Protein backbone atom coordinates (compact mmCIF):
# COMPACT_ATOMS: atom_id res chain seq x y z
CA UNK A 1 0.00 0.00 0.00
CA UNK A 2 1.29 3.45 -0.78
CA UNK A 3 -0.54 6.70 -0.66
CA UNK A 4 0.81 9.45 -2.87
CA UNK A 5 4.06 7.58 -2.29
CA UNK A 6 7.33 8.00 -4.12
CA UNK A 7 8.57 4.57 -3.44
CA UNK A 8 12.30 4.09 -3.89
CA UNK A 9 13.62 4.04 -0.36
CA UNK A 10 17.11 2.87 -1.03
CA UNK A 11 19.23 5.97 -1.44
CA UNK A 12 22.95 5.94 -2.04
CA UNK A 13 25.67 8.01 -0.43
CA UNK A 14 25.29 10.75 2.16
CA UNK A 15 21.74 11.47 3.10
CA UNK A 16 20.15 14.01 5.33
CA UNK A 17 19.54 12.59 8.77
CA UNK A 18 17.18 13.36 11.55
CA UNK A 19 19.10 14.49 14.56
CA UNK A 20 16.71 14.22 17.48
CA UNK A 21 14.32 11.27 17.54
CA UNK A 22 11.57 10.94 20.13
CA UNK A 23 11.05 7.30 21.04
CA UNK A 24 7.77 6.55 22.83
CA UNK A 25 7.73 3.33 24.86
CA UNK A 26 11.53 3.53 24.87
CA UNK A 27 11.89 1.58 28.14
CA UNK A 28 10.01 -1.39 26.67
CA UNK A 29 11.31 -4.47 24.93
CA UNK A 30 11.51 -3.42 21.27
CA UNK A 31 11.94 0.27 22.11
CA UNK A 32 15.08 -0.24 24.21
CA UNK A 33 16.69 -2.45 21.52
CA UNK A 34 15.83 0.08 18.86
CA UNK A 35 17.38 2.91 20.88
CA UNK A 36 20.70 1.02 20.76
CA UNK A 37 20.60 1.01 16.97
CA UNK A 38 19.47 4.63 16.73
CA UNK A 39 22.33 5.82 18.96
CA UNK A 40 24.85 3.69 17.09
CA UNK A 41 23.64 5.29 13.86
CA UNK A 42 24.34 8.79 15.11
CA UNK A 43 20.86 9.87 16.22
CA UNK A 44 20.12 11.63 19.49
CA UNK A 45 17.33 10.00 21.43
CA UNK A 46 14.72 11.45 23.74
CA UNK A 47 12.78 8.51 25.19
CA UNK A 48 9.51 8.50 27.10
CA UNK A 49 7.67 5.74 28.92
CA UNK A 50 5.03 5.55 31.65
CA UNK A 51 6.29 2.16 32.91
CA UNK A 52 2.91 0.53 32.26
CA UNK A 53 4.84 -2.53 31.09
CA UNK A 54 8.49 -1.73 31.79
CA UNK A 55 10.62 -1.70 34.90
CA UNK A 56 11.18 1.81 36.22
CA UNK A 57 12.85 3.19 39.30
CA UNK A 58 13.75 6.47 40.99
CA UNK A 59 16.46 7.09 38.41
CA UNK A 60 14.36 6.28 35.37
CA UNK A 61 14.71 3.17 33.24
CA UNK A 62 17.22 0.43 34.10
CA UNK A 63 16.90 -0.82 30.49
CA UNK A 64 17.93 2.55 29.09
CA UNK A 65 20.87 2.80 31.53
CA UNK A 66 22.06 -0.52 30.07
CA UNK A 67 21.54 0.92 26.59
CA UNK A 68 23.88 3.79 27.59
CA UNK A 69 26.41 1.20 28.81
CA UNK A 70 26.24 -0.71 25.50
CA UNK A 71 26.55 2.37 23.29
CA UNK A 72 28.61 4.75 25.47
CA UNK A 73 26.00 7.41 24.56
CA UNK A 74 23.40 9.34 26.53
CA UNK A 75 19.64 8.91 26.36
CA UNK A 76 17.39 11.71 27.61
CA UNK A 77 14.51 10.03 29.41
CA UNK A 78 11.14 11.28 30.68
CA UNK A 79 8.65 9.29 32.68
CA UNK A 80 5.62 10.48 30.76
CA UNK A 81 2.22 9.24 29.69
CA UNK A 82 0.83 9.83 26.21
CA UNK A 83 -2.57 10.32 27.77
CA UNK A 84 -1.16 13.39 29.54
CA UNK A 85 -1.11 15.75 26.56
CA UNK A 86 0.31 18.83 28.38
CA UNK A 87 3.24 16.72 29.55
CA UNK A 88 3.96 15.53 25.99
CA UNK A 89 3.61 19.12 24.81
CA UNK A 90 6.24 20.24 27.37
CA UNK A 91 8.69 17.62 26.09
CA UNK A 92 8.24 18.87 22.52
CA UNK A 93 8.74 22.44 23.79
CA UNK A 94 12.07 21.43 25.33
CA UNK A 95 13.50 19.44 22.42
CA UNK A 96 13.45 20.03 18.70
CA UNK A 97 12.11 16.62 17.82
CA UNK A 98 12.51 15.91 14.10
CA UNK A 99 10.98 12.46 14.00
CA UNK A 100 9.00 10.17 16.30
CA UNK A 101 9.31 6.41 16.57
CA UNK A 102 6.10 5.39 18.30
CA UNK A 103 6.27 2.09 20.20
CA UNK A 104 4.15 2.97 23.25
CA UNK A 105 1.07 0.78 23.42
CA UNK A 106 -0.55 -1.93 25.48
CA UNK A 107 -0.19 -5.23 23.65
CA UNK A 108 -1.70 -8.16 25.57
CA UNK A 109 -4.42 -9.76 23.45
CA UNK A 110 -6.26 -11.38 26.39
CA UNK A 111 -6.24 -8.18 28.45
CA UNK A 112 -7.50 -6.23 25.45
CA UNK A 113 -10.55 -8.51 25.19
CA UNK A 114 -11.32 -8.09 28.89
CA UNK A 115 -10.67 -4.32 28.96
CA UNK A 116 -11.41 -2.90 25.52
CA UNK A 117 -11.83 0.68 26.73
CA UNK A 118 -8.41 0.63 28.36
CA UNK A 119 -6.90 -0.45 25.04
CA UNK A 120 -8.81 2.02 22.88
CA UNK A 121 -7.99 4.80 25.29
CA UNK A 122 -4.32 4.01 25.71
CA UNK A 123 -3.46 3.02 22.14
CA UNK A 124 -5.83 5.11 20.02
CA UNK A 125 -6.16 8.20 22.20
CA UNK A 126 -2.43 8.05 23.01
CA UNK A 127 -1.70 8.11 19.27
CA UNK A 128 -4.16 10.94 18.70
CA UNK A 129 -2.55 13.07 21.43
CA UNK A 130 0.87 12.40 20.00
CA UNK A 131 -0.17 13.34 16.44
CA UNK A 132 -1.74 16.60 17.65
CA UNK A 133 1.32 17.59 19.65
CA UNK A 134 3.58 16.68 16.73
CA UNK A 135 1.53 18.80 14.34
CA UNK A 136 1.49 21.80 16.67
CA UNK A 137 5.31 21.61 16.81
CA UNK A 138 5.78 21.21 13.06
CA UNK A 139 6.98 17.60 13.35
CA UNK A 140 5.44 15.41 10.64
CA UNK A 141 7.81 12.46 10.47
CA UNK A 142 6.63 9.26 12.10
CA UNK A 143 7.50 5.58 12.29
CA UNK A 144 4.64 3.59 13.77
CA UNK A 145 4.79 0.10 15.39
CA UNK A 146 2.05 -1.86 13.70
CA UNK A 147 1.56 -5.58 13.71
CA UNK A 148 0.85 -8.51 11.43
CA UNK A 149 -2.33 -8.98 13.51
CA UNK A 150 -3.94 -6.35 11.23
CA UNK A 151 -4.15 -9.07 8.53
CA UNK A 152 -6.36 -11.39 10.61
CA UNK A 153 -6.56 -15.01 9.38
CA UNK A 154 -4.40 -15.08 6.23
CA UNK A 155 -6.13 -15.67 2.90
CA UNK A 156 -2.77 -16.61 1.37
CA UNK A 157 0.83 -17.07 2.47
CA UNK A 158 3.33 -15.52 2.56
CA UNK A 159 1.54 -12.30 3.38
CA UNK A 160 2.32 -9.22 1.34
CA UNK A 161 1.38 -5.67 2.32
CA UNK A 162 -1.44 -5.89 -0.25
CA UNK A 163 -3.24 -8.57 1.75
CA UNK A 164 -6.60 -7.23 3.04
CA UNK A 165 -6.62 -5.94 6.60
CA UNK A 166 -9.38 -5.40 9.11
CA UNK A 167 -10.86 -8.86 9.75
CA UNK A 168 -9.28 -8.94 13.16
CA UNK A 169 -10.34 -11.18 15.99
CA UNK A 170 -9.11 -9.16 18.98
CA UNK A 171 -9.26 -5.64 20.38
CA UNK A 172 -5.48 -5.13 20.54
CA UNK A 173 -5.19 -5.85 16.80
CA UNK A 174 -8.11 -3.55 16.08
CA UNK A 175 -6.34 -0.65 17.84
CA UNK A 176 -3.43 -1.12 15.40
CA UNK A 177 -5.82 -1.34 12.46
CA UNK A 178 -7.79 1.78 13.50
CA UNK A 179 -4.55 3.71 13.93
CA UNK A 180 -3.38 2.69 10.47
CA UNK A 181 -6.72 3.88 9.05
CA UNK A 182 -6.32 7.15 10.96
CA UNK A 183 -2.81 7.60 9.55
CA UNK A 184 -4.16 7.00 6.02
CA UNK A 185 -6.77 9.74 6.46
CA UNK A 186 -4.19 12.08 7.92
CA UNK A 187 -1.68 11.60 5.12
CA UNK A 188 -4.41 12.22 2.52
CA UNK A 189 -5.66 15.37 4.27
CA UNK A 190 -2.29 16.97 4.95
CA UNK A 191 0.64 16.13 2.76
CA UNK A 192 3.19 17.40 5.23
CA UNK A 193 2.90 14.05 7.00
CA UNK A 194 5.59 11.52 6.18
CA UNK A 195 4.78 8.21 7.83
CA UNK A 196 5.99 4.63 7.78
CA UNK A 197 3.94 1.94 9.47
CA UNK A 198 5.96 -1.19 10.19
CA UNK A 199 4.00 -4.40 10.57
CA UNK A 200 6.08 -6.58 12.85
CA UNK A 201 5.80 -10.33 12.77
CA UNK A 202 7.02 -12.12 15.95
CA UNK A 203 9.94 -10.39 17.65
CA UNK A 204 12.07 -12.58 19.90
CA UNK A 205 15.67 -12.69 21.18
CA UNK A 206 17.72 -10.02 22.89
CA UNK A 207 20.78 -7.83 22.37
CA UNK A 208 23.84 -10.13 22.06
CA UNK A 209 25.54 -8.40 25.04
CA UNK A 210 22.97 -10.00 27.36
CA UNK A 211 22.55 -6.60 29.02
CA UNK A 212 19.06 -5.85 27.70
CA UNK A 213 16.13 -8.12 26.92
CA UNK A 214 12.44 -8.63 27.45
CA UNK A 215 11.26 -7.97 31.01
CA UNK A 216 7.57 -7.05 31.04
CA UNK A 217 5.91 -6.03 34.30
CA UNK A 218 2.50 -7.32 33.25
CA UNK A 219 1.87 -11.05 33.23
CA UNK A 220 3.56 -12.16 30.03
CA UNK A 221 2.12 -14.38 27.37
CA UNK A 222 4.86 -14.20 24.73
CA UNK A 223 6.38 -17.56 23.93
CA UNK A 224 10.10 -17.03 24.40
CA UNK A 225 10.14 -15.41 27.87
CA UNK A 226 7.78 -18.14 29.03
CA UNK A 227 9.98 -20.85 27.53
CA UNK A 228 13.06 -19.39 29.21
CA UNK A 229 11.29 -19.37 32.59
CA UNK A 230 10.58 -23.08 32.13
CA UNK A 231 14.20 -23.70 31.15
CA UNK A 232 15.32 -21.89 34.32
CA UNK A 233 13.00 -24.08 36.41
CA UNK A 234 10.86 -21.10 37.45
CA UNK A 235 7.80 -22.53 35.72
CA UNK A 236 7.08 -26.27 35.47
CA UNK A 237 5.86 -26.64 31.86
CA UNK A 238 5.37 -24.70 28.67
CA UNK A 239 1.71 -24.71 27.72
CA UNK A 240 1.24 -24.97 23.96
CA UNK A 241 -2.22 -24.09 22.73
CA UNK A 242 -3.20 -26.43 19.93
CA UNK A 243 -1.31 -29.38 18.40
CA UNK A 244 -3.97 -30.24 15.86
CA UNK A 245 -3.45 -27.38 13.42
CA UNK A 246 -2.99 -28.14 9.75
CA UNK A 247 0.81 -27.65 9.97
CA UNK A 248 3.66 -30.19 9.64
CA UNK A 249 3.78 -30.92 13.41
CA UNK A 250 0.33 -29.65 14.40
CA UNK A 251 1.54 -26.55 16.28
CA UNK A 252 1.03 -22.97 15.11
CA UNK A 253 3.52 -21.48 12.67
CA UNK A 254 4.89 -17.94 13.02
CA UNK A 255 7.58 -15.73 11.51
CA UNK A 256 10.02 -15.16 14.39
CA UNK A 257 12.32 -12.21 13.90
CA UNK A 258 15.37 -11.28 16.00
CA UNK A 259 14.68 -8.05 17.87
CA UNK A 260 17.97 -6.53 16.62
CA UNK A 261 16.94 -7.20 13.01
CA UNK A 262 13.64 -5.52 13.83
CA UNK A 263 15.55 -2.58 15.33
CA UNK A 264 17.59 -2.13 12.17
CA UNK A 265 14.33 -2.01 10.20
CA UNK A 266 13.53 1.21 12.07
CA UNK A 267 16.85 2.77 11.17
CA UNK A 268 16.18 1.84 7.54
CA UNK A 269 12.70 3.39 7.78
CA UNK A 270 14.18 6.62 9.19
CA UNK A 271 16.69 6.74 6.37
CA UNK A 272 13.87 6.49 3.85
CA UNK A 273 11.80 9.17 5.58
CA UNK A 274 14.72 11.56 5.88
CA UNK A 275 15.48 11.32 2.16
CA UNK A 276 12.00 11.00 0.63
CA UNK A 277 8.46 12.19 0.97
CA UNK A 278 6.47 8.97 1.07
CA UNK A 279 3.14 10.18 2.46
CA UNK A 280 2.25 6.90 4.11
CA UNK A 281 4.00 3.61 3.42
CA UNK A 282 3.52 0.23 5.07
CA UNK A 283 6.18 -2.49 5.33
CA UNK A 284 6.22 -6.01 6.72
CA UNK A 285 9.16 -6.72 8.99
CA UNK A 286 9.67 -10.46 9.10
CA UNK A 287 12.16 -13.06 7.91
CA UNK A 288 9.85 -14.61 5.32
CA UNK A 289 10.15 -18.02 7.00
CA UNK A 290 7.56 -19.86 9.05
CA UNK A 291 8.72 -21.76 12.15
CA UNK A 292 6.39 -23.87 14.28
CA UNK A 293 6.19 -23.57 18.06
CA UNK A 294 7.54 -27.10 18.34
CA UNK A 295 10.47 -26.30 16.01
CA UNK A 296 11.31 -23.19 18.05
CA UNK A 297 11.27 -25.21 21.27
CA UNK A 298 13.54 -27.84 19.67
CA UNK A 299 16.09 -25.21 18.60
CA UNK A 300 15.93 -23.55 22.03
CA UNK A 301 16.59 -26.88 23.80
CA UNK A 302 19.46 -27.71 21.45
CA UNK A 303 21.33 -24.40 21.67
CA UNK A 304 20.81 -23.91 25.41
CA UNK A 305 21.21 -27.54 26.50
CA UNK A 306 17.99 -27.32 28.51
CA UNK A 307 14.76 -29.32 28.60
CA UNK A 308 11.37 -27.73 28.10
CA UNK A 309 8.49 -30.00 29.14
CA UNK A 310 5.43 -29.26 27.01
CA UNK A 311 1.78 -29.47 27.92
CA UNK A 312 -0.67 -29.30 25.06
CA UNK A 313 -4.01 -27.60 25.56
CA UNK A 314 -6.91 -26.76 23.29
CA UNK A 315 -6.50 -24.03 20.68
CA UNK A 316 -7.17 -20.51 21.93
CA UNK A 317 -10.07 -18.66 20.40
CA UNK A 318 -8.81 -16.19 17.80
CA UNK A 319 -5.37 -17.80 17.37
CA UNK A 320 -4.44 -18.34 13.75
CA UNK A 321 -2.88 -21.42 12.19
CA UNK A 322 0.09 -20.02 10.34
CA UNK A 323 1.45 -16.63 9.39
CA UNK A 324 4.66 -15.56 7.78
CA UNK A 325 5.73 -12.49 5.87
CA UNK A 326 6.65 -11.68 2.37
CA UNK A 327 9.36 -9.21 3.34
CA UNK A 328 10.50 -8.39 -0.19
CA UNK A 329 9.04 -4.87 -0.23
CA UNK A 330 11.17 -3.87 2.76
CA UNK A 331 14.18 -5.41 1.02
CA UNK A 332 13.73 -3.49 -2.21
CA UNK A 333 12.47 -0.16 -0.82
CA UNK A 334 14.18 0.07 2.57
CA UNK A 335 17.29 -1.87 1.60
CA UNK A 336 16.64 -3.93 4.75
CA UNK A 337 16.83 -7.62 5.33
CA UNK A 338 17.16 -9.92 8.34
CA UNK A 339 20.54 -11.47 9.08
CA UNK A 340 20.06 -13.42 12.31
CA UNK A 341 19.06 -17.10 12.57
CA UNK A 342 16.58 -18.83 14.86
CA UNK A 343 19.62 -20.23 16.72
CA UNK A 344 20.83 -16.68 17.43
CA UNK A 345 17.34 -15.66 18.57
CA UNK A 346 17.44 -18.45 21.16
CA UNK A 347 21.10 -18.06 22.20
CA UNK A 348 20.81 -14.31 22.65
CA UNK A 349 17.59 -14.58 24.63
CA UNK A 350 19.11 -17.27 26.84
CA UNK A 351 22.19 -15.12 27.50
CA UNK A 352 19.94 -12.27 28.68
CA UNK A 353 17.88 -14.62 30.84
CA UNK A 354 20.83 -16.36 32.49
CA UNK A 355 22.75 -13.13 33.08
CA UNK A 356 19.57 -11.54 34.50
CA UNK A 357 17.37 -14.32 35.91
CA UNK A 358 15.24 -11.74 37.75
CA UNK A 359 15.23 -9.23 34.90
CA UNK A 360 16.24 -5.63 35.46
CA UNK A 361 17.37 -4.68 38.93
CA UNK A 362 15.71 -1.56 40.27
CA UNK A 363 17.68 1.27 41.83
CA UNK A 364 15.80 2.58 44.81
CA UNK A 365 17.12 5.72 46.42
CA UNK A 366 14.86 5.23 49.44
CA UNK A 367 16.32 1.85 50.36
CA UNK A 368 18.34 3.38 53.20
CA UNK A 369 17.90 2.66 56.87
CA UNK A 370 15.47 5.18 58.33
CA UNK A 371 14.75 4.99 62.06
CA UNK A 372 16.06 1.46 62.16
CA UNK A 373 13.68 0.30 59.37
CA UNK A 374 14.62 -0.25 55.78
N1 LIG B 1 6.36 -7.76 20.96
C1 LIG B 1 5.56 -8.14 19.98
O1 LIG B 1 5.32 -9.33 19.81
C2 LIG B 1 4.96 -7.12 19.03
C3 LIG B 1 4.47 -7.55 17.79
C4 LIG B 1 3.89 -6.59 16.93
C5 LIG B 1 3.80 -5.26 17.31
N2 LIG B 1 4.29 -4.88 18.54
C6 LIG B 1 4.17 -3.47 18.92
O2 LIG B 1 5.46 -2.94 19.16
C7 LIG B 1 5.42 -1.94 20.16
C8 LIG B 1 6.43 -2.26 21.23
O3 LIG B 1 6.14 -3.55 21.76
P1 LIG B 1 7.02 -4.21 22.90
O4 LIG B 1 7.00 -5.68 22.66
O5 LIG B 1 8.31 -3.52 23.03
O6 LIG B 1 6.07 -3.93 24.15
P2 LIG B 1 6.46 -3.32 25.57
O7 LIG B 1 5.24 -3.43 26.42
O8 LIG B 1 7.72 -3.93 26.07
O9 LIG B 1 6.76 -1.79 25.21
C9 LIG B 1 5.76 -0.80 25.12
C10 LIG B 1 6.14 0.29 26.10
O10 LIG B 1 5.19 1.35 26.01
C11 LIG B 1 4.93 1.83 27.32
N3 LIG B 1 3.62 2.49 27.29
C12 LIG B 1 2.41 1.90 27.10
N4 LIG B 1 1.44 2.82 27.13
C13 LIG B 1 2.04 4.04 27.31
C14 LIG B 1 1.57 5.37 27.44
N5 LIG B 1 0.27 5.67 27.40
N6 LIG B 1 2.47 6.37 27.62
C15 LIG B 1 3.80 6.08 27.68
N7 LIG B 1 4.30 4.84 27.59
C16 LIG B 1 3.43 3.82 27.41
C17 LIG B 1 5.01 0.60 28.22
O11 LIG B 1 5.32 0.92 29.56
C18 LIG B 1 6.14 -0.19 27.55
O12 LIG B 1 7.39 0.07 28.13
C19 LIG B 1 3.97 -1.92 20.66
O13 LIG B 1 3.29 -0.88 20.00
C20 LIG B 1 3.43 -3.26 20.23
O14 LIG B 1 2.05 -3.23 20.05
C21 LIG B 1 4.88 -5.77 19.40
From TrEMBL:
The keyword Aminoacyl-tRNA synthetase does not apply. InterPro entries: NAD(P)-bd_dom, NAD(P)-bd_dom_sf, UDP_G4E. Pathway: Carbohydrate metabolism; galactose metabolism. Residues 22-348 form the NAD(P)-binding domain. Its cofactor is NAD(+). Gene3D superfamilies: NAD(P)-binding Rossmann-like Domain, UDP-galactose 4-epimerase, domain 1. It comes from the Eukaryota. It catalyses: UDP-alpha-D-glucose = UDP-alpha-D-galactose; UDP-N-acetyl-alpha-D-glucosamine = UDP-N-acetyl-alpha-D-galactosamine. Its EC number is 5.1.3.2. It holds the Pfam family GDP_Man_Dehyd. Keywords: Carbohydrate metabolism, Galactose metabolism, Isomerase, NAD. Catalyzes two distinct but analogous reactions: the reversible epimerization of UDP-glucose to UDP-galactose and the reversible epimerization of UDP-N-acetylglucosamine to UDP-N-acetylgalactosamine. The reaction with UDP-Gal plays a critical role in the Leloir pathway of galactose catabolism in which galactose is converted to the glycolytic intermediate glucose 6-phosphate. It contributes to the catabolism of dietary galactose and enables the endogenous biosynthesis of both UDP-Gal and UDP-GalNAc when exogenous sources are limited. Homodimer. Belongs to the NAD(P)-dependent epimerase/dehydratase family. This is UDP-glucose 4-epimerase. It comes from Plutella xylostella (Diamondback moth).
Amino acid sequence: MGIHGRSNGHTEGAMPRFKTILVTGGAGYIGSHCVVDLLQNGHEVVAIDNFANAVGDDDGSPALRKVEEITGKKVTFYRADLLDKPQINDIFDKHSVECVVHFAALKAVGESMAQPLLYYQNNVLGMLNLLEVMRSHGCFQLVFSSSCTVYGEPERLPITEEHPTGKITNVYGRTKYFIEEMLKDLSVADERWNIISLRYFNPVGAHPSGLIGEDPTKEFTNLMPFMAQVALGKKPVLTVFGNDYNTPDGTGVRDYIHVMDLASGHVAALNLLSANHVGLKVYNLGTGKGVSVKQLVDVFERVTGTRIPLQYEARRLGDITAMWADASLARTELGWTTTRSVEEMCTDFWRWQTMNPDGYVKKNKTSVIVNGKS
